[in-house]
## 1
Amino acid sequence: MDEKLKFIKNNHCVKIQTKITELLNIDLPIIQAGMVWCSGWKLASAVSNAGGLGVIGSGSMSVDILEEHIIKCKSATNNPFAVNLPLMYKHINQQIDLIIKHKVPVVITSAGNPSTYTSIFKEAGITVIHVVSSTKFALKAQAASVDAIVAEGFEAGGHNGRDETTTLCLLQEVVDAVNIPVIAAGGIGSGNAILAALSLGAEAVQIGTLFASCEESSANENFKQALIQVKEGDTKLVMKQLTPVRLLKNAFFEKIDKAESEGKTVEELREILGKGRAKKGIFEGDLIDGELEIGQISSKINKILSAKELINQLLQEFDLSLQKIKHLPVIY
Amino acid sequence: MDEKLKFIKNNHCVKIQTKITELLNIDLPIIQAGMVWCSGWKLASAVSNAGGLGVIGSGSMSVDILEEHIIKCKSATNNPFAVNLPLMYKHINQQIDLIIKHKVPVVITSAGNPSTYTSIFKEAGITVIHVVSSTKFALKAQAASVDAIVAEGFEAGGHNGRDETTTLCLLQEVVDAVNIPVIAAGGIGSGNAILAALSLGAEAVQIGTLFASCEESSANENFKQALIQVKEGDTKLVMKQLTPVRLLKNAFFEKIDKAESEGKTVEELREILGKGRAKKGIFEGDLIDGELEIGQISSKINKILSAKELINQLLQEFDLSLQKIKHLPVIY
């Protein structure tokens, strides 16, 4: 390694300015994904304190628990943070009231129609970002006046789009189609991938899988240890007849995957799934019968780091990759 | 657009130097994929003449036809070109003899074990590149002493790996795992994507889908016109119980997809597939009953260009993206 690269390796960048960092008033174009059973106030505040945007995932929280997490997050960081809000949940109106009451600066909406709620947040001065898996939905979100979109590809963990469009393909379409900033999600597992996303025209990345394995993640230790062992090919998108979801392969996965390939009906699949399986797997650590939502890029996890350590590692990789690209011999 | 960008827009780069351009003695890190019924001598020589590496796809050729294409390609370009060779085909030994006899400078092997044939080519002074869809197979190819690998992700057209690892995820794994140069394939549909691939540590890209639609492609005009109409979500990976293949959705696709989701046996699926369907679709232009192999990124095709025009467009996009990345405000 030459002296210049050595310097960068030990002194990674502290600020990368993009339209998203300006919109959200943060230092780094790194957004932590809201994830069920992983992203409470501990993870969110750690990410925000490290210069990214921490996100409380309300999908696995009751209204009371969400309020507790918002209050704790505010006291643990002075930096902006967000709440991720699946729009199809039953307590949606109470959750919205809470977010407005506590002046949460950013809301990331998903799993639902952004046109119903975006204006409520915007009137309260809250920045709205909506998660999509296709250009069609990106255009709908833009029409609903959201401030930015997260474009999430097939390789992402958890619930996923039906078109199976990968992050690489989706970005090439969506960045051209909309004129609001795009955040790349799905498969971001290194600083190189952050630079790749920016090369594709994204203004930031959203990272779920890597943060799920962090010290501050609420996931069960069993689940985190399992993530260290994941190899390429160990996750798969299943339950395509219900809501497609990417899972780590385990006994439960095999059961539902087999049922699906045998042509079982939606009702039969729903019965096999039952209730509370993600909690059982991710939060309670049942690696056999639990539903282990995680992305393809979990194969890159080889150590449990703090959110700060993970971000530092990503920035070092980003710097090295950026230097290499800046010095690429291109002749005109 | 500022003056500098305007200049670049009209005067794109003519040379991008990487380990792969040095290995292959070409100007641009752009390799055209060998594709059944698309990539004969016309497309291959056009790509090589434009500074990339043109590739004759032998998968749909008899031994005599392959020889004819090699001879015509040599007379149509003075630049290096390659033959793509699926290793499981029955005339493999005669094809190898031909490639050596005509001193084809590069061979790209796929669909088979590289340890059987690599040494034969290397002894004849031929550069060997092997196509893989996983890090496991990349390591095997490296152990077989190939000179470089193509790492091809889930979004690629045609035959595909079983793990469903996307190009973005695969590159992040494979580049760290091997010490030979890696060529990114699957989902490369713009100059931005070329820069993204280089950011991820690839030394070149392999592009299939975009070249399949070019003027010089042997594909039927019906097929090319269909490619212009493709929208996001119009392709899908099917026949997972036989050999997974990404197809454009048409009547044949619906038939086999339905059969698969109903849990039909391998034998039943094979009967539905029958023989010669790719030829019927791609070469004869039967858009109803043909097997239309194409990648997800076909949604980016909106005009039939010559190979030279396509490459120029990619280079212009690459330049713009590179300038943006070079000027990214990063603070240390």
## 2
Amino acid sequence: MDHRKAYDKLLEKVRNLNYILSVRGLLVWDQRTYMPRKAVKFRGRQLSALSEYAHSVITSPEFTSLLETAEKGDYPEGSRERMNLFWLRRTYDRTVKVPLKLQLKLVQKATETEVVWREAKDRNDPSLVLPHLKDLVSLKREVAEHLGYESEPYDALLDGYEPGLRASEVEEVFSYLKRETLKLLTKVMEARESGRVPRPVRGHFPIEDQKKFHLFLLRSIGYDLNAGRLDETTHPFAVRIVPGDVRITTRYHSNDLLDGIFSTLHEMGHALYGLGLPEEYFGEPVGNAPSLAIHESQSRFWENVIGRSPEFWEVFYPFLRAFFPSLYDYSLEEFLFAANDIKPSFVRIEADELTYNLHIILRFEIERALINGNMEVEALPEVWNSKFKEMFGITPPTHREGFLQDIHWYSGGFGYFPTYTFGNVIAAQIRHRMEEDIDVRKAVGSGDFGTILDWLRERIHRHGSMYLPKDLVRQATGEPPNPHYLVSYLREKVERFYTPTHRSAI
Amino acid sequence: MDHRKAYDKLLEKVRNLNYILSVRGLLVWDQRTYMPRKAVKFRGRQLSALSEYAHSVITSPEFTSLLETAEKGDYPEGSRERMNLFWLRRTYDRTVKVPLKLQLKLVQKATETEVVWREAKDRNDPSLVLPHLKDLVSLKREVAEHLGYESEPYDALLDGYEPGLRASEVEEVFSYLKRETLKLLTKVMEARESGRVPRPVRGHFPIEDQKKFHLFLLRSIGYDLNAGRLDETTHPFAVRIVPGDVRITTRYHSNDLLDGIFSTLHEMGHALYGLGLPEEYFGEPVGNAPSLAIHESQSRFWENVIGRSPEFWEVFYPFLRAFFPSLYDYSLEEFLFAANDIKPSFVRIEADELTYNLHIILRFEIERALINGNMEVEALPEVWNSKFKEMFGITPPTHREGFLQDIHWYSGGFGYFPTYTFGNVIAAQIRHRMEEDIDVRKAVGSGDFGTILDWLRERIHRHGSMYLPKDLVRQATGEPPNPHYLVSYLREKVERFYTPTHRSAI
């Protein structure tokens, strides 16, 4: 068969497989929203039948031979064919390099560990889960050996979430970020000690009204509710099922407005990206986002860069007050300060924009050491707490608020955490580059989100994964991920809110 | 390979395929309930990718050879293996006998005709759709030739919905039923003319309260809302996604309680059956219902036999009045009479229990003639109206209320209609047989639905398709489908409500 024919046939196979696999998005959405409880057993079987099917297609002799033949074609650098083949080869290699037996063992161990972790967390008892985690780390190390790496085992796992990223690059970005963050945190703490602390926004905010406000917010920004939905779940998420169907969920607390609003803006950022991905590539590898960090850059951009900016609330605070008149007790500045509260805390998902990255850096240092064999799992509770004290100046009162807080490691997710902070890095960098084309403050302040969204679509969304993550950032902003912009952005924020002279503005 | 090994391997393949295909239930449910509008294009691709996948598995050389080898095994009559192989052979034959090209042509023509039908119905213009229907009938006739039959082409299509049923048997059942129904209808019309007409139950019934009442009804009867849901759609339906997940929908009108209640009871009947099918057979052919008529017998049983009985409303009318106090204006007897109103009408889905079967008999006579080549499509409007006049004594004022009312033919569904009336026949027969074991009136009147449901589970549900439809009816009731019980049941109903002397009870 000639190369072109093989390519076409391969892509048809891949598209059909992906149309089928796309139902997983719906299965997961349904499971977390409306599925009756007793469906859970067979829902699991549906999902594993789909995984087995995908595995059998990718590892079939026909697939291998089509891929190998297609790869002999001479497609121009950066062409759709070239990029599709690049991503298919990557998926293929990551699938076949790890023996099926090891993959199954890993899935089983991860499922088991996750269950035990929940109990260990509930009971605040590390001893329950550490032996399981030890096995899991050792299996992940085996996987890394099979996948292969140039300089350290951790790279093989990191690459699974962030194609092309190396631990040494993460280290470089993170060491600068850590130093600068700690400096800024010192400033914040000084200001706080001098009394510069926001007044918490408290009250009773009926859930039905919150829902209405969230929908109003989503519509105003440009999330098409004919191509998405907003539902309620304990853990907010976004899921792209197919083009024209990217759904989000959020949560509401009747005594707190902020958590829900920023959850919705975060998930909306993911959804706007999902809706901006090239529809005509759907089903092909180039039709997806190239990495988790790129995806996270979009959610953080809307949640933080736009959503916590003064201009944003200049537009929306009057509406928010119309929905919740008790907010007439809070000036715009008081509300803004509360939305930009910065202070050390124990739990990552409750952290502010500045200290959030410290939570990630801590996790990166630990998981890298675990996977590279430079640290024993037994030492984890101790290492976590001492590192935490060193960075945040406080010690977690329980392990539940310490090394047991996140599900990631206990479900086998090593190498995932850095993508969150890379998302922040890229979001700030996008904001900086966008400013060259758009007066962002002015656009936001006049409620013109279309201009901003168009920019993101043009520079990021429409490319799918026609570029590797780093190259996508380069082509969108002119340089690879550079933490300088995040630090400038955070410095500006700290100056805006934590300079005592500013107090008079309240 | 030995027979047993082939069988086991075949069944594993089939189970995995069916776990994947079971997501279609969710795709359809979602499409009709919560799916954002713009998902529709790719939802279609997901569904066709699944169909193509199923087709490719069933027609693969491996499947053929496993089936042929497994069939050489000597499995006892009525064993799970024997029945699985019977159903697999049937599916296989129905799949491979019709050339793929013809199948695709048919799907395309049906899709096209359905679209044109909607317009023809809206505009009340037969000329738009008749040429398309003519092509469709001719394609269905071709399909029948490929499938093969003993005595007439129509049998080949009927068998697709009701395995083993022949047109001659339908004719026998229907000619008796028609004669008896017309006699009863004459009695009803005489009573109506003498003034025995129910007072319509009118009022304003808030939708939110209706929802609450429906949920109360479902819970009281024993539909497990942890294994199902109740949502709202224009066209009510039930869908079994997996064991432990059988969902229903209904509709509400703020000025009418009855339509919604009986829709919910109907779909609940389907759902209770779906939840009673043997979980341990899920994914195997024997895990399904054996036919549409059997399924319909369960929905009609709950909707009509139980749901329109005086005893049922002796239990629930007090609650209904508590939800809707304006009903204190209507005596129980008035309410019951309204729920059992019998009169000729043009539209099948609005018909009462008695005349409903006349609607079906009309359709059977026509579709049988069309498929057997005994009638031209061009004659359809004329034949419909004259037959209708003959049976119902009235002529449809428009084709919209005449031969254009139902989607079935225009989407290629010929041979489907008889299953509805066979459902009624079987429901009444079940009621009769059940009486030998249970005092049904007493059970219903004391709200003891568990006893009734257990009987259905034991006699019908738990068998899946371990029997052919006719044999299932035989083993549950002692004889094959016999319209005598339906006629007795209807006669009793007519006597109960349309005997003038009874009026004093109001």
